[in-house]
Design a protein that fits this description.
- This protein is of the alpha+beta class and about 210 residues long.
- Helices cover about 25% and strands about 25% of the residues.
- The strands form 2 sheets. The chain has a 7-stranded mixed beta sheet, sandwiched between helices. It has a 3-stranded mixed beta sheet with strand order 4-3-5, with no helix packed on it.
- The radius of gyration is 16 Å and the shape is globular.
Length: about 210
């Protein structure tokens, strides 16, 4: 894996709309070389986000009271909420690297971070003829712990990953996550019995060479 040091920005809870506005500004600045490659770590209040091709049948019942917002990233429906670490990656790709290549790099770096936290995890290859399979799964239980959805514009990436640390997992059961009806979403707390958001942030930042 190539060396790719990133500048680290950290926030706690940021509304999704506010985060998207700031991320869009950061992408523009990176395209103009006014900003270095950046990892932004934060969390969101409860919200479902959907890709442009997410089927209506995958959305939650509105009575659940959690807003649903369309986003420009790839991928299907994802849930965000307190206790989840979101990482937005604003990175200018090399000419020989596409967005799919970078997503695979992101997966491997996150697998490394989880390993340092004591959880064995893996990325998965996409079966022939299937939609791109992205994210990270636990090795022993086969549950999905990290969702990934990214895009690139004029060579710069945006959006990123969502790692479930110690938040409520029930909202995942109210919709079809990641386009996979049978997916079993999990968290570090569910797998290990305990989880520290501060320790997770440190491990993730280290895995991305971010400071």
């Amino acid at each position: 894996m190539r060396a790719r040091p990133l500048t680290l920005i950290q926030d706690d809870l940021v509304d999704y709309d506010t985060a998207m506005e700031r991320m869009t500004d950061m992408v523009g600045r990176r395209q103009r070389d006014e900003l270095p490659d950046t990892l932004w770590l934060l969390s969101h209040p409860s919200v479902y986000t959907i890709g442009r091709r997410t089927p209506m049948a995958h959305l939650p019942d509105p009575s659940r009271g959690i807003p649903v917002m369309e986003t420009g990233r790839g991928g299907q429906l994802t849930y965000h909420g307190p206790g989840q670490l979101v990482g937005y990656l604003i990175v200018k790709l090399d000419e020989d690297q596409g967005i799919v290549d970078y997503v695979r790099e992101v997966e491997l770096r996150l697998v490394e971070a989880l390993g340092k936290l004591g959880l064995s995890a893996e990325r998965r290859d996409t079966p022939p003829g299937s939609e791109l399979l992205t994210g990270v799964w636990t090795t022993e239980t086969g549950r999905k712990i990290i969702s990934i959805g990214m895009r690139q514009s004029r060579g710069v990436t945006s959006h990123g990953f969502a790692l479930n640390v110690d938040g409520d997992l029930e909202p995942w059961n109210w919709a079809i996550a990641c386009g996979m009806p049978d997916v079993d979403m999990t968290s570090l707390k569910r797998e290990l019995g305990t989880a520290s958001m501060a320790e997770v942030r440190t491990a993730v930042a280290a895995a991305f060479e971010a400071s």
